[in-house]
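Posting here for the record, re: 9WN.
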Amino acid sequence: MEGFPPVQPYVPAQRSTVGVTARELRHAARQVLLRNWTGASTVPSHGLYPHQWSWDSAFIAIGLRHVSAVRAQRELETLLAAQWGDGRVPHIVFNPAVPLEAYFPSPDFWRSSTAGAAAGAPRSVETSGIVQPPVHALAAWLVHRADPVTSRRRGFLRRLYPKLAAWHRYLTEHRDLGGHGLVSVVHPWEPGMDNSPCWDVPLSRIEPAAPASFRRCDLDHGCPDDRPTDLDYGRYVRLAADYRDHGYRDADAPHPFAVEDPGVNALLIASEYALADIADEIAPEVVPDPVAAARTGPRAAADDHRARARRLTAALVARLWDAGAGQFLCRDVRSGELIGERSVAGLLPLIVRGLPRDIVDTLLHTLGGTHFGLGGSARLVPSYDLRGPAFDTRRYWRGPAWFNVNWLLERGLRHHGHPKRAAALRAAMLAAAATSDFAEYVDPRTCAGHGTRQFGWTAALTLDLLARTTARPAGERNTGGRAGDRAAVRAGVRAAVRAGARAPGGGTAH
Ligand code: 9WN
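Prediction output follows.
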């Protein structure tokens, strides 16, 4: 708990937040993170998601760094303490104090410490056996940059670097199932966008587990219209159980669901560049042998990461770019075909450095076009094509807007020199967070909240947006900008409330 203020009672957001200030929003967001902290990490939500999730923790650490550098570092350290011997970082680290009935699939389903023993699953902690997108090196770098003195004193990057490097090696060496240099996901939960219409065709080949063989817990907390269907759940369960029964081995696993996802690969590229920055920062420590340093140069590790990032970028463009669609698409590795659904994952390569200029320009055009509507019919970027046949404003990853995805795109807009578009998106996100009580996801047009509330990464990324100027996202350090924050929040909230008032159901759902 080093350097952390005492927990204050949580004050729920008001229904009408027209008058909310940046200070009030910052306070409310901090309170969510305080409540969701369990002592070593942060739950996305005490009710719906009562354990530690992998990519949630990365986004949460990015916000926590503005509250406590030490706590942000611990968030990532706790996650990486559950890393498997083969390098994989599990998508859930289970809290043994939480009853089994609180979340399904529970530890007794995954049985990681026994079923995953050959793959090096830890004995001392139970985890899931699948992964989530590799945002962690990016998060570690941003956490370090928020307080380099504390980070160096605690040896944060020096301790994390080998784990992060092993994690990336797991992905590039065990998960290149297509054989063309990109990472494949083997379960719809792995890309984090669990219920995306992109999975409908590859998932349709999977025989669902019998409904009586498991009991969903998510419907105890969430509205069925916001969550995946029972049929999809049966298929998720079948895929996870078969992987488990195969010892979570990748080399000879059949992996009937195998998809190259542009979001996962873009995040890996961004994290490879972050790993290069980390290697530069700790270069004197990772190359302790002066003879080796003289021969290879102290920056050899960093150069390797940058070279890998460039190779991944070339593969991403070669395998997943679809000029006709004006965005990246997923590829079904089993059929060899591109999947013709437009997911927001196909815009996430906007966060990648060194993408060809014509592709960047096309992506920026697509972001504001009729399919994603940013700056037009949508206030936040939807998770799926506004005009797509499966579009649904509220169902989980089939249309609603998510804060982590919008945070990444805001970063991409700044990176590519569009500060005004980035500022507008940032204002809309702050307003949506304020009016929805930090909802898990929102209607992209009205910002009406859906899913659970007081959601971890929504609060964390709100803090990050509040702490930022509109400068380019290098290894950013807070520089304040509070007057601008306040104006942005007020303007965004007023616009959100006006949009909510026009929309059926309003914009302040609770
Ligand atoms: C399964 C925790 C996670 C997020 C995912 C989101 C959802 C889990 C679920 O919640 O997935 O991993 O039970 O639906 O889709 O992105 O990491 O917040």
